[in-house]
Write a structure and sequence with these properties.
Elements lengths: L3 E3 L2 E6 L2 E5 L9 H23 L6 E10 L7 E11 L5 H14 L1 H6 L4 E8 L1
Parallel strand pairs: 5-6
Antiparallel strand pairs: 1-2, 2-3, 4-5
Length: 126
Amino acid sequence: MDFRLNNEAFITEAPFGELQVSGNPEQGYRPYQLLVSSIAVCSGGVFRKIMEKQRIPFTDIQIHADVTRNEEEPQEITAVHLHFKVAGDELKEHKIEKALQLTYKHCSMVQSVKDSIKVTETFELV
């Protein structure tokens, strides 16, 4: 990926369009938002694939990410908690729990940050 400076933001061209990143929230996505998004969406994609392979029928998955940051500079992310809301008929809690355990193990973004950011996951059936 290549980035170019444009005022207060760095810009890159991605397959789905331009991505503008800046520490200033008025100029683009903040870097921590992209990091958390990567962890959440990677986990969600892996979770979906595992559920499909295990033939666990679901109709929707929503993910809420709670982020904990160090209050002192440089305000690094210290923890990310992902809460999955899974909708579907006849969902079994033990199967969803097992799928989430596999998700943690197989998500490349979680595995990339696990030694520096604590990533935890919970779920509820809706």
